[in-house]
Amino acid sequence: MRPVIEMLGVDTVYEGEKNATLKGVDLRIWPGDLVCVLGPNGAGKTTLLETINGILPYKMGRVTVLDEDVCTRGPKVRRQVGYMLQEHTFPESTPYLVKDVIIMGRFGRIGLFRRPNETDWNAARRAAEYMEIFHLWDRPIGKLSGGQVQKVLLARTLAKEPRILLMDEPYSNLDYRATEEISSKICELHRTRNLTTLMVIHELNHIPPDCNRIVLLKDGKILGDAPPQKMLSSSLFRHAFSEG
Amino acid sequence: MIELPAHIFLNTILGASLAALVCSLIGVFIVRMNLSSMGFCMSHAAFAGVALGLAISRDPLLMALGMSTLVALILGPVAERARLQADIILGTMFSLTMALGLFFLSIIPGSAMSSTALSILWGSVLGITDSDLMRLGGLSVFLIGVIGLFYKEFLAIMLDRKLAEESGINTRPFYYAILFLCGITVSVSLKLIGGLLIFALMVNPVSSAYQFSHNMKNIIFLAPLFGLASSVTGIIFSFQWDVPLGSSIVIMSVALFLISIVLSPKRRRG
Ligand SMILES: Nc1ncnc2c1ncn2[C@@H]1O[C@H](COP(=O)(O)OP(=O)(O)OP(=O)(O)O)[C@@H](O)[C@H]1O
Ligand SMILES: [Mg+2]
Fold it and tell me: Which of A174, A239, B11, B140 has the fewest CB atoms within 10 Å, i.e. is most exposed?
């Protein structure tokens, strides 16, 4: 079996910064993995996800996703990788409707010189129904609540019908009921489509039952990578969240 | 009211309408993508280019294109990256291009305040030739063609560049395309509208359009309509009161904006 994501000795340096934010990261993600990424604020979790989908260029090492080099084939990779941004917000006056925000998730894979067709709109509609936000379909995106935006963004990444799903704190704006519902949907997607999933979370009770790996990140380095039971009982975990 | 030969009147109406159309269309991008200071700089650069062209007897249009492209090449990468830095550099460039424009204006042979020189600032009605019209017409077709061809990419980039990138669109070529189209638009329309006011014609119709819709797909059609309306009413105003064409068009675009605010369904309380 080949890994769907392979990082070898990767350093990511933000523009204008002297020091690398990710430092020598080695990570292999296998088809069907459901991985939770944990670590203190500023550990580099968002940086890790954006390095994987190639939005951030890396300086050293090599990142291969779905057998493509992210560095040179970024757009092609991103057409197959759904990435839900952390706490993304839209100003109130943003002149776009929910349905357009959702269908735009597919724009890359539709390709140049083509318009979204019925198949595309169906995928967008299904994603909106799945996230239970279809009643917001024709509303301006700027006039939704934080949790509703969160669901729209998740629907948007699902509309792409991705082969890999990256989510940066998908529960950050959700009430407890929505958290449970979406959590069970993430598991369902993972189970039925064998969707490889990486999610950044902060709360231990958000770890889905299907999670098979926890990646622990601190100061831009991978501190540990193990199944949940093993990881949560290890001293590494307490160490990651201790001072210094 | 000034009496003008019919064909000049016709040329003016056509020219001003086309200029308003292209300016307000590119203005949709400039406003939505927060490139206002960039557009402002480019219009001043184009102005400096025309002045330079007149001063050294070279094609003013080519010089304007050259100058605004230069600004896009310098400022594009800056504006693409660090926010705070961009403001400082834009501010400097803005004053530099303005100063250069005035400097070149002063070295144009003949009287510095000659009508040709002044017309770059104010825009001119009479100077418009058939070849100017051809250029404006060609640019309109080109602009609408490019936007039509890459409509969905432009829509996505105007929502949010990072989200567009996430969906798998390679956004950089489109970002620079917008800057260059802005430069061409400014350079070609400058002669009619004038360097001081062209920027207003890029922004005001768009601001009006925003009053009537929450949907970019409507705004992108409404803005050029408001641009056209400003130019037609502006021409009438200009001939009636003998004011420079550019300023009367811009005054009309502001008036339309004020009316839009009053009529806006967004502001009406249920
Ligand atoms: N655009 C940027 N330029 C420079 N440094 C950055 C930038 N974005 C993040 N960093 C730095 O990189 C480090 C990792 O940031 P990152 O956003 O990946 O953290 P995180 O683990 O996602 O944190 P959080 O839990 O708060 O979301 C931080 O020290 C941060 O200051
Ligand atoms: Mg983060």
Answer: A239
pLDDT level of residue B118 (50, 70, 90 thresholds): confident
Q: Give phi and psi for A35, each to the nearest 5.
A: -110, 135
Residues 85-114 of B with CB under 8 A from A: none
Q: Where are the domains of chain B?
A: 6-262
| ipTM score assigned to the predicted complex | 0.95
Which residue's CA is the nearest one to ligand 1's atom 27? A41
Q: How far apart are CA B118 and CA B124, in angstroms?
A: 9
Our answer on whether the CB atom of A21 is closer than 6 Å to any ligand 1 atom is yes
Q: Which ligand is nearest to the CA of A168?
A: 2
Dump pLDDT digits (tens) for B60-78.
889 999 999 999 898 888 8
Task: Tell me if A242 CB under 6 Å of ligand 1.
Answer: no
Residue B113 pLDDT greater than 60, yes or no? no
Backbone torsions φ then ψ of A242, nearest 5 degrees = -85, 165
Pick the CATH number of A1-80+163-244 from 3.40.50.720, 3.40.630.40, 3.30.70.330, 3.40.50.300: 3.40.50.300
For position B82, what pLDDT does the model report? 61
Mean pLDDT check: name the lowest of B163-167, B229-233, B234-238. B234-238
Q: Share the mean pLDDT of chain B.
A: 88
**pLDDT tens sequence across B6-17:** 888 888 889 999
Q: Do A78 and B166 touch (CB under 8 A)?
A: yes
A105: chain B residues, CB-CB within 8 Å = 166-167
Count residue pairs from A and B with Cβ separation < 8 A: 82
Q: What is the pTM of this model?
A: 0.93
| CA pair distance A97, A103, nearest whole angstrom | 10
Is residue A19 within 6 Å of ligand 1 at its C-beta?
no
Q: Which of A14, A17, A21, A173 to mutate to test the pocket of ligand 1 (most atoms within 8 A of CB)?
A: A21
The one-letter code for the residue type at A119 is: T
Domain range list for chain A = 1-80+163-244, 89-162
For every residue of chain B, which 3-state class applies, written as one string? CCCCCHHHHHHHHHHHHHHHHHHHHHHHHHHHCCCHHHHHHHHHHHHHHHHHHHHCCCCHHHHHHHHHHHHHHHHHHHHHCCHHHHHHHHHHHHHHHHHHHHHHHHCCCCCCCCHHHHHHHHCCCCCCCHHHHHHHHHHHHHHHHHHHHCHHHHHHHHHCHHHHHHHCCCHHHHHHHHHHHHHHHHHHHHHHHCCCCHHHHHHHHHHHHHCCCCCHHHHHHHHHHHHHHHHHHHHHHHHHHCCCHHHHHHHHHHHHHHHHHHHCCCCCCC
Predicted pLDDT of residue B126: 64
| Pairwise CB contact (< 8 Å): B156 & A104 | yes
